[in-house]
Amino acid sequence: MAVTQSEKATTCKMLVGGQWVDSKATEFGDVTNPSTGEVIARVPMCGADDVDAAVQAAHAAALEWKEVPVVERARLMFKFKNKLEENCEEIARTVTREHGKTLPEARASVLRGIEVVEFACGIPSLIMGESIANIARNVDCETIRHPLGVCAGIAPFNFPAMVPLWMYPVAITCGNTFLLKPSEKVPLSSLLIAELLIEAGLPRGVLNIVHGGKECVDALLTHPLIKAVSFVGSTNIARYVYEKGTAGGKRVQAAGGAKNHIIIMPDADMTQTVQALQASAFGCAGERCMAGSLALPVGEAGDMLVPALAESAAKMKVGRTDTGDGPDMGPVISADHLKRVKGLIDKGVNEGAELVVDGRKVSVPDAPEGFFVGPTIFDQAKPDMTIVREEIFGPVLSVVRVNNLEEAIRIGQDCPYGNGAVIFTSSGRTAREFKHRFNAGMIGVNVGVPASMAWFPFTGWNHSFFGDLHIQGKEAIQFYTQQKMTMTRWFATSDEKFHDPVWKSRRT
What we know:
Aldehyde Dehydrogenase, Chain A, domain 1, globular, 21 strands, disordered N terminus, Aldehyde Dehydrogenase, Chain A, domain 2, seven-stranded mixed β-sheet, single chain
């Protein structure tokens, strides 16, 4: 195993050509347990030479891998799926240890990743081309999907197991080879899962792993042998990845940040709404691009929502997630991110929002060095405030009260993001109006987090996504393949003309 839980401060290795190897890097980053602040591993900051070695291994493997029948590639995914299910608990605990998710959250994220592997198992029926006989006289036409070659994925810190599994299972089953760069903050889950894929029978060089920061990313974006790049992260970096990658002639799908709106109508079931909004805003410590971070109660709904939500959120237990005690919420990823979240809470107070629940006051006595901030709720926030406009990526919910649905939709139209939006209502007419008009790619009706499952694309809009083919679903297959169209016409030989009664009848 490349890195195990018992090997504290072990230096992470790269996976190149089926071998775990050391990087040539001279600089290293720390992987910490966010619950305690303890350094649990070191990760190399790989440079262009390391990336090139991995790309060359992937390129060499691609020549043979693309000729492996798609049914055999799918059978490998079945074996991989079984390995993931057998080791789901170990993966989840690794996610919890390096990221800080609660164990139930980590388990759920692993299962969502396994769903994409299940989807990849069905690719033989999804990758099929199309054909028409006699599209012109005696001319047949067909399309066939071919792999691109070497593809790369740049993953974020917030879902160490799930997001990489959004990427390479589909790419590999489509016949490509792959370079994965997990977040330098959380590489351990990816290394563990890669071991399982190797155990399932993956040929050498089909999956490769490099580590690092901007230098490593730039090497991936500019390497001439890499044909496509998949990215998930913040909007600023997503835009950079898209622009730099496409400038080099690559396909790029780059999912960015969000400010997801949740509209609460007066006729909503308030008990269900409070439960769903609490899970949406504070689940995973708010560190997800589908978090419900902006609530817009309409009219009297605000007077019902805010007190109930504040009472419920104040009861949430915040604590270390690596001991099995089962808190409701764990830490954020790092000391720097904790400082940023608290700074934005300060800014919300300074700009005049009413701080109803203050997460800065949370205390975890058994983990004084952990990166903890509790659920935070602002009421009476205004659309021009920083806490309303910026993605905080922490457990902070801003409540902007509005008079009607039209005002809520207008605020949504002004938002530069467009990942998700939700409405809670008992009115089908209201829900339909919202679904039709709201400016976001993923819509929920009485659903707290409208994140798509593996069989549907993750359809962010506006500055939440850069590219034209989204992650997951059939669009992922289109992203990782290219079509070849063939038109065919066969002429009869002289002998065939003499003996073929159909040909003779045409002449007469």
